[in-house]
Amino acid sequence: MSSGIPVYNQACLATDSSSTTPSFYLVGSTSPGSLEVNYINNPDSTTYTRVASQKDQSAWTPNAAKLCYIYPFAISANPGINVIQFGSGSSYLAMAQTNNIVTGATSFHNTGFMSPKLFSWSGKFQGFDTFTVVANDTDTATGRPGTWAGVRLDFRDNGYSIIGYGVGNKPVVPWNALLSVGTYGQYAGSTVPGFTVVFDKSNNGQIFSTEGSLLADMNNTVPVVTLGVPVSVNMNGITLTENAIPITMGNTAYILDKASNGTTVVYSISPGASSTLNRVYKTGDSLPFANNMAAAALNNQILTYSVTKNVAYFNVFDVATASWSGSGLVSGSAVDAPPPLSSKSSAPIGAIVGGAVGALLVIALALFFFIRRRRQSTSKSANTAELAQAGPEANKSDGAQQGDAQHCDPVYVQYVQPQYDQGYAQHQHDQGYVPYEQAQEYQHASPFIPPPPPINQDTNVSYKVYQPETVSPATDNDALYKVPHSDLTDASMNSPTVVNSSPYISPASYRDSFQPGSPESVRAKVLPSTQGPQFVPNAPVAESEARSPQVVPSSMVGH
Prior knowledge:
Layout: E1 2-3, E2 11-14, E3 24-28, E4 34-40, E5 47-55, E6 66-70, E7 81-85, E8 92-97, E9 101-102, E10 106-108, E11 111-113, E12 119-125, E13 128-137, E14 144-154, E15 162-165, E16 177-184, E17 191-200, E18 205-213, E19 225-227, E20 231-232, E21 245-249, E22 252-258, E23 264-269, E24 278-280, E25 294-298, E26 301-308, E27 311-318, E28 323-326, H1 341-382, H2 384-389, H3 392-406, H4 422-426, E29 464-466, E30 468-470, H5 485-488, H6 519-522, E31 524-526, E32 540-542
Antiparallel strand pairs: 1-5, 2-3, 3-4, 4-5, 6-7, 7-8, 8-9, 10-30, 11-13, 12-13, 13-14, 14-15, 15-29, 16-17, 17-18, 18-19, 18-20, 21-22, 22-23, 23-24, 25-26, 26-27, 27-28, 31-32
């Protein structure tokens, strides 16, 4: 056990969402070629235990973003942890166990993952997780620098993880995508259902019902992930920034973003129940936002890891109490509090009172003129004879008085309609109603209709499916299956380079099958039926590169 929290430039958190314990794993790289897996007992701990590590100069780099996921519903003392590194030329996967066993780094053939912000978790069942992602296909013949794809990770053997290009209804073009976040539901038949929510750089969002297949393999056209018809997100006046971080917590998705005052703001959306993106108004102190922040769901809470002035911190946001805890917090303020009702409701009350007083004043004036007119009428009737015999001057004067009375405008009493501040409603938490306006009836918000389930496009679908291949060390004699170092590293071949992806793709989809006599077809094997439900029994599956002695024995991973 070591003291102090390890400091990483790019780290990821592996948490078991099915466990009630507060423990988790922190994964990162301190130097080129290193990968470290650390066990943390709880977020308040200042000590850690290094449970696994690996040295591979051709794979790991401290400056590449990472995600990591733990074996779902782990039943083993040494659960598998899938580590994913991002970047063009530096996208790798590895399976780590807590007994210091780490598989050799693997990668999908001619494929790179663009960003952890475009890698949304949308399905979960036993030893499998499914994701909706943006990937770079660098195949020289049919490659596209960026496209939507489906990924299924196998937590028992990364060699059987799979990626498929062809997801049904495609979201916004990848170069305009800002963020994607997923939610997952309950396993049904041979599919793992969920939702994928994609936000673009124009501050729009779409919700896609999502199905991940356990039957997709290298020898059929069943999509790995299928997206349904999209439904627009009600942004609720919220504008996401490029700093936003997606977090999946079962059937609810959370987003951490940088507020205008430099603190962390929290948003949530439950796409299976509502299409509205909501702000979670916190109480208490605030968490400063850090550009290197890593986050994950832990026991219905949000766990974060950040580094400030070379000091690492863990913090927890409790979604039930809407409050932050941990080190490095700053004093809370009213900036993040919802607008108080009293400050806004005083305006319409004042208008009503003022209108009532004005109406009473008008009534009093009307009574005054009415009584005055009655008195003048009585006086005129008593002097009718005198007025009839009066001279022109007298008649002229009285005519003027009568004219004054005849041209008084009728008095109408009008009740003042209460006017509501329209800006007030726009800043409120989603309350399910629209503000009242004059000459308009109250309305209820339209009920949310979840997106329809996707149609399984398993016939006449042309798409590309890959399984990962091992990046062999320099001493490996089997050069046929190596990924060329020119595709993975810089000229020195010492450390991978992270290259920004090209923002252009081709909209066409296709499928890449094995050619007779190719290395992949020669190495095809019959998959044992006990491997799991993700493949059709006895279907040939391309075997990944022969593993190093670090390969995880199947007996050591829970089934």
